[in-house]
């Protein structure tokens, strides 16, 4: 399946299929240098599948640490200095092969190397159906997640679904959070459909029909980012679950999507308070338990520390915390939420896990 952005210029294709990697060659013709930036675990697990890239395209390979530790200023400085020592020119293409951390990091390298060189996303996780599309790239700061970055479009997204076969279940769960988020942003039918398809951990492990749900997720994201690339209005909706989720992820160093799922539950509770919604919190908690999300960590949460991090969220304004809430499934809005409501909702959330 192929999707394509529809900006006025600088569009890019998103190829979502098994063996998509075979199509990479058409996007890397004519560059003086090609640099593969590869997640260490992916490099080990998929060494033979990736070997042809270095030999056939005479590409230079940089192996980066797996996961979030890559997205640091220190590692960024080290990597960009190492690349610059190779006398690269602007006629260079970086290829990010890994999950969202690899894509965010490599995209930021590409945006800043010689004031910008081309890059291609080769996502290898479920979560990266989200992160590889939309051109947000960046690294973390000691003040919070993704606070150093740019909007910088890739030349192509080559999503080879073969990679998903080696994902540990914990990463399947992490990625599923963003797929589920996209269904919540769509409509009730989409949520019913996905909850039926992946009704428990066994069903989710099987990943049947995942191609369809990834496609739907990317389509939802595209509809939003094509209206608002730089997040001045509707793109904020994609942050559903992220205000609280980022604070949890940053504090407890758990996978991004595990934290986002907790953020989504928290958002339901806040929406019930602020928007007089009637979301069935027990249903959503039970669903996450059926999928085997590790939710016990919630009993360790402390409001003050998480609130301090929520205050650093990029969506905030002079009023304070701005959250994406659901005024009904498929109807997101961005709203200021007072500290007292945040605290009350927090206590309701934690109470479920201290029973
Ligand atoms: N730019 C955006 O729009 C955007 C959107 C959502 C999330 N993100 C970012 O994405 C990151 C999370 O992405 P992620 O969940 O893909 O995390 P990740 O890149 O850290 O990968 C998760 C783990 O899976 C391993 N892995 C990757 N592919 C594998 C494979 N095929 N087989 C086995 N193991 C594999 C990695 O080594 C890592 O340990 C966060 O940094 C988050 O901030 C960015």
From TrEMBL:
HAMAP family (UniProt xref): DHQ_synthase
Role description: Catalyzes the conversion of 3-deoxy-D-arabino-heptulosonate 7-phosphate (DAHP) to dehydroquinate (DHQ).
Family: Belongs to the sugar phosphate cyclases superfamily. Dehydroquinate synthase family.
Keywords for the protein's UniProt record, in alphabetical order: Amino-acid biosynthesis, Aromatic amino acid biosynthesis, Cobalt, Cytoplasm, Lyase, Metal-binding, NAD, Nucleotide-binding, Zinc
Protein's cellular compartments: Cytoplasm
Residue span, 3-dehydroquinate synthase C-terminal domain: 175-316
EC numbers on record: 4.2.3.4
Keyword hit for Amino-acid biosynthesis: yes
Gene3D superfamilies in the record: 3.40.50.1970, Dehydroquinate synthase-like - alpha domain (1.20.1090.10)
Pathway field: Metabolic intermediate biosynthesis; chorismate biosynthesis; chorismate from D-erythrose 4-phosphate and phosphoenolpyruvate: step 2/7
Chief localisation class: cytoplasm
Cofactors (names): Co(2+); Zn(2+); NAD(+)
Binding, NAD(+): 66-71, 100-104, 124-125, 136, 145, 163-166
Recorded catalytic activity of this chain's protein: 7-phospho-2-dehydro-3-deoxy-D-arabino-heptonate = 3-dehydroquinate + phosphate
Protein name: 3-dehydroquinate synthase
Native source species: Staphylococcus gallinarum
Cofactor binding note from Swiss-Prot or TrEMBL: Binds 1 divalent metal cation per subunit. Can use either Co(2+) or Zn(2+).
Enzyme class: lyase
Pfam families the record matches: DHQ_synthase (PF01761), DHQS_C (PF24621)
Stretches assigned to the 3-dehydroquinate synthase N-terminal domain: 62-172
Positions that bind Zn(2+): 178, 242, 256
UniProt entry tagged with the keyword Transferase: no
Superkingdom of the source species: Bacteria
């Amino acid at each position: 399946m192929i999707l394509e952005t529809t900006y006025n210029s600088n569009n890019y294709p998103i190829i979502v299929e098994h063996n998509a990697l075979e199509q990479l060659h058409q996007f890397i013709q004519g560059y003086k240098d090609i640099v593969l930036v590869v997640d260490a675990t992916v490099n080990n697990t998929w060494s033979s599948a990736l070997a042809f890239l270095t030999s056939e395209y005479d590409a230079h390979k940089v192996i980066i640490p797996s996961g979030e530790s890559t997205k640091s200023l220190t590692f960024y400085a080290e990597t960009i200095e190492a690349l610059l020592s190779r006398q690269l020119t602007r006629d260079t293409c970086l290829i990010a092969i890994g999950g969202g951390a690899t894509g965010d990091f490599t995209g930021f390298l590409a945006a800043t190397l010689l004031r910008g060189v081309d890059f291609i996303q080769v996502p290898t996780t479920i979560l990266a159906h989200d992160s590889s599309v939309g051109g947000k790239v960046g690294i973390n700061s000691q003040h919070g997640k993704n606070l150093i970055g740019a909007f910088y479009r890739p030349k192509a997204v080559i999503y080879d679904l073969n990679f998903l076969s080696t994902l540990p279940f914990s990463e399947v769960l992490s990625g599923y959070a963003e797929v589920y988020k996209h269904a919540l942003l769509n409509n009730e039918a989409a949520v019913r459909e996905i909850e039926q398809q992946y009704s428990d951990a066994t069903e989710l492990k099987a990943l049947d029909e995942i191609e369809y749900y990834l496609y739907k997720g990317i389509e939802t994201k595209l509809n939003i980012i094509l209206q608002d690339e730089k997040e001045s209005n509707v793109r904020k909706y994609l942050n559903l679950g992220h205000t609280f989720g980022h604070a949890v992820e940053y504090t407890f160093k758990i996978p991004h999507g595990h934290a986002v799922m907790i953020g989504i539950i928290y958002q339901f509770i806040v929406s019930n308070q602020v928007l007089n919604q009637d979301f069935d919190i027990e249903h959503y908690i039970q669903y996450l338990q059926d999928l085997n999300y590790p939710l016990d960590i919630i009993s360790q949460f402390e409001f003050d520390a998480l609130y301090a991090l929520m205050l650093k969220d990029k969506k905030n304004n002079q009023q304070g915390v701005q959250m994406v809430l659901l005024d009904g499934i498929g109807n997101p809005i961005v709203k200021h939420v007072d500290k007292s409501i945040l605290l009350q909702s927090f206590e309701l959330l934690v109470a479920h896990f201290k029973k």
